[in-house]
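Help wanted!
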Amino acid sequence: MQKLLLLGDEAIAQAALDAGISGIYAYPGTPSTEIMEYVQASKQAEENNIHRQWSANEKTAIEAAIGMSYTGKRAIVCMKHVGLNVAADGFMNSAITGANGGLVILSADDPSMHSSQNEQDSRYYGKFAMIPIFEPSNQQEAYDITLAAFDFSEKYRIPVLLRVTTRLAHSRSGVICKNKRPQNEIKLPENPRQFILLPAIARKQYNELLEKQLHFEKEFETSPFNAYIDGKDKSMGIITSGIGFNYLMENYPDRVCPHPVLKITQYPLPTKLIARLADECESIMVIEEGYPIIEEQLRGLLNRCLTVKGRLEGSLPRVGELNANAVARALGLPDTQGEAIPEIVAPRPPALCLGCPHIDSYKALNEAMEPYGKGKVFADIGCYTLGALPPYNAIFSCVDMGASITMAKGASDAGLNPTVAVIGDSTFCHSGITSLFDCVMENTPITIIILDNSTTGMTGGQKSHGVGRLESICLGLGVEKEHIHMLNPLPNNHKQNTEIIKQELMYKGVSVIIPQRECVQTLKRRLRKQRK
Amino acid sequence: MNIDIILAGVGGQGILSIATIIGNTAVKQGLYLKQAEVHGMSQRGGDVQSHLRLSDKEIASDLIPTGKADIIISVEPMEALRYLPMLKPQGWVITNTNPFINIPNYPEESILMKRIEQLPHKIAINADKIAKDLGSARSSNMVILGATAPFLQLNYKDIEQTVTDTFLRKGQEVVDVNIACLNAGREFAMNK
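Answered by r_m:
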């Protein structure tokens, strides 16, 4: 048995390889990116010819994974929590089609919004779609439960949602790996209509999905991953989910909690185990990372029967990540605090790197926009979102992938003039192309700036689909050639770049300006490699 | 045995290289380890920290509770102070004194150093200068690691071995200068 030091993300990647996947599909997004990166760097993946290329977005990724499952082979698809919004159509409907080869959908949530625009809890999606959810509490369990997820998926012909949160995804610990399993051979679904969701078929399969729920719950009543750990002090019983268990145990140095603890790792919730806890204890505390989804179900609308404490009730903070201190306070245990942060310590927010091409693009854009006043530049998700901060103060929106162009279109439709959209090359390929198509169809007065640093920068420099193709994509969609401009965003070109932007701001139709210069981080890495 | 470490610095300064060497040494000695890292947005020149926990028993939380850290290791002086709420009253701060200034309101250096001097248990070391004098400005993190070594309850020879293993593929010269930096840091701390 081999013990590896792995991030939670890497443990999942290694488990997927050992489970015999034939492909991984993903779009980069913190905190999920390292799963694909691990597989891409893996010898095991190379030797077994595992598909491991980035997808254009989470929707194309999940659809490809469903397609691979259709053939009878195993697939995993990975995304951050908001990526599941993009993939939601395929996700919801994959519950009705079911799986053929094992299909695991990983969503990495980011409570406290370290690198995200919200802290939505993917478990609601699992419940919504009636897809079983597996939520590990540590790196070893992440490995073990990923293997179990593929087995479960094939046993019940259902996709499994694997949910992790930032602290597990990005924390490293020793993991013992198991035997490697070969890939499946191609074996098309026994029922050739399984994946045809015509209403008549979908209705039948929806009923089957409902029936499966009882089997799922029964499995999770006795599953070793859902543990009932008895305790003497029945004044309170504790339910934990995911890494909530660790924050509870951190408060007991010998790792023995005096209260009965139900550790939940698999959903739908095991009702009988919860009933036992409720029968035996005077009250229940729910410690869950994310939204209070378990607590909400326990309380119900009227909350007349049970005394339930947690994030909804207020014993634990409603927002942000949990930690051992917050749990200590909720349990009435002593809290510890070091010295306060000295006043001289200044905040150090993230910033664009020295020499970043976006800096030159924003300088030119700001000067060109000077006569029109603030509030007319819509932006998107990536490193360039930092243009919202001083000294640039250049952009006024960041909502979802691709929204810059379509929000600017809506504002233009409303009569705002000029309107500008700022979007990165990777984000444009993810969800901006259809937005541009809408603009072209109406010849919307809009200036779109595609900041092309030829990579997915914020997540660490993954391959971007757009490299070398942006101009031809815009031409193909119908943007007029004389209103597409390629710029080189360097300080020396500031004057002429500003002039081009100024000129296009006055054009009453669709303009696309593409400042193209490689990300300084990927450039550094490339040069370092070349030197070797 | 139980030791909780906060590693602090600015995104891009490479605090994880220190964490990796301590971690690999600990694992070789059969200890349990958990190491929470920061990836994503903050890596772009923002403040970053890593929680490194070593123990001979299984570790529960990936994060160190506030007020429970034994050591703060910082490759930047102001960042060392940012994590004081994490530190035990009897905990140690080991910090580089060379500031990394990428914000307009960085505190005045003399005031900052005075504040660090007031810490009850600290090693403040100009790791950049020591590394540069030894011929490898890029190895200042190894000086910091060396200065931390006396506090780690890890076998020093094993730390040296891990440093050697880490740099071996870059050639013996690189190994030697990094070991020299490690030793210089350790000596500085032992003489304090």
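OP: Thanks! One thing I noticed: The mean pLDDT of chain A is 96.
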